[in-house]
Design goal:
CATH architecture: 3-Layer(aba) Sandwich
Strand content: 25-35%
Helix content: 25-40%
Number of strands: 7
Radius of gyration: 15 Å
Oligomer: single chain
Shape: globular
Largest sheet: 7 strands, mixed
CATH class: Alpha Beta
Distance between the termini: 30 Å
Strand order of the largest sheet: 1-2-3-4-5-7-6
CATH superfamily: Gcn5-related N-acetyltransferase (GNAT)
Order of helices and strands: EHHEEHEHEHEE
């Protein structure tokens, strides 16, 4: 499997992956989010990455630019500048193989190369599976918030001095 920056040609396959996860256990996504608009924004910022297995997208992750998340007061000084990792999705048949963790490790390395000192994520309080994974990856819970009609834990990790 390879970790790579997504391109415009990947957009429809990524949207299908997102839509396939709506309604699954722990998933906070809806029929109206994420959509083409989020994919287009991520692609325009060169901030969308995927894991491919023999050319097929099996996982996706974004380096998001959500002003509401960035404005949360919980992010720690030692991790600034930081970037939000968002919209982590793994194709159903590839789940429970550590792929989400590998995606986050690869995205964190990419963020470090881009000069970020920290990464952060908001994780639905309902998503115990993701919480366990992020705890295992040594993320710290630094706060909580309510955005987009969902209650979230705020996770953060320092990736550079």
């Amino acid at each position: 499997m390879t970790f790579e920056r997504a391109g415009r040609a990947d957009a429809e396959e990524i949207l299908k992956l997102y839509k396939s996860l709506v309604g699954t256990e722990y998933c906070a996504w809806t029929d109206s989010y994420p959509e083409r608009e989020e994919i287009a924004g991520d692609l325009a910022r060169d901030a969308l990455f995927c894991m491919k297995d023999e050319g097929k997208i099996v996982a996706v992750i974004s380096m998001d630019a959500d002003e509401a998340v960035e404005a949360l007061p919980c992010w720690t000084e030692k991790c600034i500048p930081s970037v939000e990792l968002s919209r982590v999705g793994v194709r159903k048949e590839y789940q429970n193989r550590g792929i989400a963790g590998e995606m986050i490790r690869c995205a964190a390395e990419e963020a470090r190369k881009q000069g970020y000192r920290g990464i952060h994520m908001i994780v639905s309080k309902q998503n115990v599976k993701a919480q366990k994974a992020y705890n295992k990856l040594a993320f710290a819970v630094v706060g909580e918030t309510r955005l987009y009609d969902v209650d979230w834990w705020c996770y953060e990790k320092q990736i550079a001095e």
